[in-house]
Amino acid sequence: MAELDNALHAKRRERFMAAMAGGGALFLAAPPQVRTRDTEHRYRPDSDFYYLTGFREPAAALLLVPEHAEHRVVAFVQPKDPHMETWHGRRLGVEAAPAVLGVDAAYPIEDLEAVLPRYLSGVDRLYFQLGVWRDHDDLVVRLLPRLGSRHVLPPEAVLSPGSILHEMRLRKDPVEIDLMRRAAAVTAAGYGEALAAIRPGGWEYQVQAALEHAYRRLGGGDSAYNAIVAAGENAIILHYHENDCALRDGDLLLIDSGAEFGHYACDVSRTYPISGRFTAAQRAVYDLVLRAQEEAIARVRVGEHVKGYHEHAVRVLTAGMVELGWLHGDVDHLIETEAYKRFYMHGTGHFLGLDTHDVGRYKAGDAWRPIEPGMVFTVEPGLYVAPGASGVDPAFWGIGVRIEDDVLVGADGQPENLTAAIPKAPDAIEALLAEAFLHHS
Predict the structure, then answer these.
(1) What digits encode the pLDDT tens for the residues 209-237?
(2) Is the alpha carbon torsion for 177, 179, 185, 189 positive or negative?
(3) Is the CA virtual torsion 105, 108, 109, 111 positive or negative?
(4) Which helix (H) or strand (E) element contains residue 97?
(5) CB 400, CB 230: distance < 8 Å
(6) What b-and-e string marks burial along 71-82, b requiring 16 or more CB atoms within 10 Å of the CB?
């Protein structure tokens, strides 16, 4: 697993503190999450906290006080404890934290509430993200009145650090871009193995297992999100996660999955014919979605705004649905009345980074923000036809197609498809499936 270097995290903290122009900022590590009873989900650090520290342990905090005379950057971590480390894993510990994390001072996490007042005395505002974790909110709510009762001036305002930090995270630096390329490469390998697992009579979960085996084998860690492996009519359920149905001859299989590498996400969708060849109706829908996607990707560039590529995809899809006979009337009117949403009900993409649905504002005031170098977007148009859809040829019923790639806006302002290595041309898909079927026989 790739590690981000200490100097990079220090640079990020300095950029954040410079933008703060005073005040203090508190970031708390995400708490472990219970899966069932006394069993926890595999731990994943909070993205904001990780972006500024590179630290993966729970029960930790980062305090930034840029105007403090001695300790501008303070960490709170779990102390060394041989008994607890035997059960739950090694800890960095308080003594090693300053050198390893590159901070000015470190304290046991248990001392957080006792230590904070000495650093926040006279700080006029506190940057802290409310509304994410209840226990974290309660800590800050308890702290502020106590500051006042100790004859210490409490912060006059609690501000969201996202107004600064999420704008930083939105524009990826070279280290982040490298990690996202590696996530894309691992994802491409996973899709190669998944495609080889597709066969009539197989199961959705077998395809998912092939994907995730490759992710783990190649060092990608966890999936960036719960995989969607949706055969036949399951593909019209946008967030289908059961992945427990059989693969039937003649149906399509929609896969939406991506590896995480160094905690950076990949997010890809492909749609495959389970029999190895598209039917005429499936190919017509697939070709339309692919054309919308390729034209949308071309518009992920400087000079466009972040909503522009969605608007173009909607226009291509709506015109195509008129040609297919699903919609009737003037394309502009169908778009204005959102008639297309009967078959295309989601957006064409989102920011991507440490989070699958990454942070960053899509608007500047009332206007869609312009696209800038360093931004990474998903581009994912689709079409979904419910069984029995009125006014639609039954040959199209139950078809769900989505095609998704991850697109970086390069330094030259042009789009770069990070996931282009995952085949999506229909003829190429059919050829790959034919080769896979030969190995099965």
Answers:
(1) 999 999 999 987 789 999 999 999 999 99
(2) negative
(3) negative
(4) helix 97-101
(5) yes
(6) bbbbbbbbbeee
Q: Phi and psi (nearest 5°) for 283? A: -65, -35
Short-list 277, 194, 250, CA closest to 395: 250
pTM here is 0.95
Residue 369 DSSP class: P
Amino acid, res. 256:
D
**If we measure between CA atoms, which residue out of 200, 192, 207 comes closest to residue 244?**
207
Contact between 325 and 397 under an 8 Å Cβ cutoff? The reply is no
Residue ranges of the chain with pLDDT lower than 50?
1-2, 4
For residue 256, give every residue at least 6 positions away whose Cβ sits within 8 Å of its Cβ, in sequence order, or none.
Answer: 227, 228, 230, 267, 268, 269, 402, 404
413 vs 243, 257, 416, CA distance in Å? 39, 27, 9
Residues labelled catalytic: 38, 239, 256, 267, 346, 350, 357, 380, 384, 402, 404
Q: Quick one: which of 364, 54, 11, 63 has its CA closest to 173?
A: 11
- The DSSP bridge partners found for residue 125 are 157
